Amino acid sequence: MKKWFAVIGDPIAQSKSPEMHTSWYENDGIDAAFIPIQVKKEELEKAVDSLKLLGVSGFCVTIPHKQSIIQYLDEIDETARLMGAVNTVVRLQNGKLKGYNTDGDGFVRSLEEVIGEEHRDQSVLIIGAGGAARGIAFALKNQGYENITVSNRTVSKAHDLVDALGIGKAISNDEASETLNQYKILIQTTSAGMIYGDTDLPFSIDDMSTEAIAADIVYNPLMTPFLQHASNIGATIVTGIGMFVHQGAIAYEHWLGHYPNTKAMIEKLTENVK
Ligand code: ATR
């Protein structure tokens, strides 16, 4: 039987997942379809039951369902449970639906594709303490990054994050701004800078080191104000495209058993959003 996959969210029209996965099926000779489905918040439970009934092989979950979907799944992977968020659902042999979170690992693969593994002992600053920051912090910790600091507008949330994961320390955005040049790897996880022409950043980044490695999780625009500044001063940049592609590739591997070609996909999508 032909396999079919989906991505559910609201809005969904902007999602690049269908294009990405369909292109991988073509490259890998897999007979499958990938469908974007708009699911309103109040219809999530019905949608999950319907997907299950109709025999979906797996699906991606995006805003605003990443947290709320947990209650409707049969099993949750340990990492996703700790994150409190699911972005990938796999239909198991017995028909049950299991939730995973591939965002954090996707980020680390994207980062290390650019900078290698030799910076794991360097100081890392994660800006933001939301769901994305939590996944990234956990994945970095698991890969052996030892020196992680989390800054957030609401400092109590940064404290909650470092306490929950048992990592590094929490600071305010003001403190981060003042000590910015002490960090080698800077990871921007807030939604600031997502909108074209929006130059609002969580705080001043004038003191960024020229030796820094600056990564953003936002990929539209590709060059966020944060990355633009980093690029202007000659720092290394890691765009959000890599994280998007690798989180999808890890999902693909869960569903189909092998890792797709991420390099060509990153190049293609980078060209498209430029
Ligand atoms: P996600 O799951 O995508 O990480 P989230 O959980 O809503 O989204 O988290 C958003 C993050 O962006 C938070 O760290 C938030 O800071 P607060 O916890 O103080 O709300 C941060 N954020 C969003 N807009 C911001 C802004 N204009 N300035 C500073 N931080 C901002």
Description:
Helix content is 39%, strand content 20%. It has 274 residues and is of the alpha/beta class. The chain has two domains: 3-102 and 242-272, Leucine Dehydrogenase, chain A, domain 1 (Rossmann fold, 3-Layer(aba) Sandwich), CATH 3.40.50.10860; 104-239, 3-Layer(aba) Sandwich (Rossmann fold). It has a six-stranded mixed beta sheet with strand order 2-1-3-5-6-4. The chain has a six-stranded parallel beta sheet with strand order 9-8-7-10-11-12, sandwiched between helices. β11 (213-216), α8 (225-232) and β12 form a beta-alpha-beta unit. It is globular and about 55 Å long. The termini are far apart. Residues 128-133, 152-154, 157, 189-192, 200, 202 line the site of 2'-monophosphoadenosine-5'-diphosphate (ATR). 2'-monophosphoadenosine-5'-diphosphate is lined by residues 128-133, 152-154, 157, 189-192, 200, 202. Pathway: Metabolic intermediate biosynthesis; chorismate biosynthesis; chorismate from D-erythrose 4-phosphate and phosphoenolpyruvate: step 4/7.
